[in-house]
Amino acid sequence: MPFLGRDWRSPGDQWVKTSEGWERLKLWRVKVFESLNENFIARLMRLALDEWDEDRSKLHNVHQPHVHFIRGTTRERKVLTSISEAFIHLDMTGACKDIRRFNYVCKLIELLLLRKMGEMSGAVQRKIFNILEEMLKQVLRTQINKAALSDLLDHASRALTDNRYHHIGSTCLWDKHTKSVNNMVAQLDNFSFKERKEDGKVTLSDLPSDCIRCILMKLCDHKDVVNLGRTNQQIHTISQENLLWKRLCFFHFTNRQLLIFLPPGKEEYEVDWKYIYHRCVKRFGKKDVYADTLALCKHCDSIFWQSIGHPCMNEKDPPRCTPLTPEALAQLFNL
């Protein structure tokens, strides 16, 4: 039955009982939409695009994941935007299925696990582990980002162990999280990449050296460069080129940081840039790069994905927004 508060300043919400406990009705509706079958959603989108083909102006009616961030409370309105509500309205479960947003969601979950795992409510805990399960399904289906998910599950297991005796929520819920993580780790360990069959189509090793060099120049993570160089001798030779590691150095580090390890009296072509890069990574860490990030609109205080946008109330002025890194988003919710 719905619950209605008696206080006129905070009238409360309608609640529904689900298999995971009591949840707010308006958030439950959003979660139901998220859990729809992907094929069903794709079919609806095709039908919608066919129907709106003659009038493109109606495309603004498509749901855009966003959440209105309420910064403070007043006597008349005692409401705050919670992190669990933000996860639902921003469609974090669907975001981890997008290769452009996977690393962003992965970094955000890592911050929450390492910093505030024992202080988060049961609703936030359940949402985090639901996202981890969706990440696992995505990795097993696409065979991409296995190493990133493996590191994330290690962080989750360590956080559960460290906060076992001081956390919010029941012991049964904590044991359920531990069992879920162990199950996901077992599935990931048993997973093996499927080798591509000979189909006569062009592979990466069939490309000219200049094309392979351009591809390696676009990679921002040295682990990807090293792992790609292990595939064959031609790519390995290109991955060891000094110019490639020089570009990585200048992309991730400032001139002041590089000068600490640069040997004096040597020209640029005489420097071992791969050695300089590894020294700088150990000292300063590498720059995090995301294909898509969240942003905060300065007009309507909405948090949204930059690649999707949001229905802003102020349509006359030019859009003004502040990009949010995972660290900035966590600070926004005091995490």
Protein described:
- The N terminus is likely disordered.
- It is globular and about 70 Å long.
- The longest helix has 21 residues.
- Among the domains are: 48 residues, no CATH class; 64 residues, no CATH class.
- β4 and β5 form a beta hairpin.
- α10 packs antiparallel against α11.
- It is of the alpha+beta class and 335 residues long.
- The chain contains 15 helices and six strands.
- The strands form two sheets. The protein has a four-stranded antiparallel beta sheet. The protein has a two-stranded antiparallel sheet with strand order 1-2.
- It is 50% helix and 7% strand.
Outline of the structure:
With 335 residues, the chain is an alpha+beta fold.
Average residue-wise pLDDT: 80
- Uncertain runs are 1-10, 52-61
Elements, N to C (H/E): EEHHEHHHHHHHHHHHHEEEH
Strand order of the largest sheet: 3-5-4-6
Shape: globular
Please count the helical segments. 15
Counting DSSP E segments of at least 2 residues, the number of strands comes to 6
Structural class, from secondary structure content? alpha+beta
Q: Hey, roughly how much beta strand do the residues contain?
A: 5-15%
Radius of gyration computed on alpha carbons: 24 Å
Span between N and C termini?
33 Å
Please estimate the helix content. Answer: 40-55%
> How is the biggest beta sheet arranged?
4 strands, antiparallel
Main location: nucleus
Keywords: Nucleus, Ubl conjugation pathway
Pfam families: F-box-like
Protein name: F-box domain-containing protein
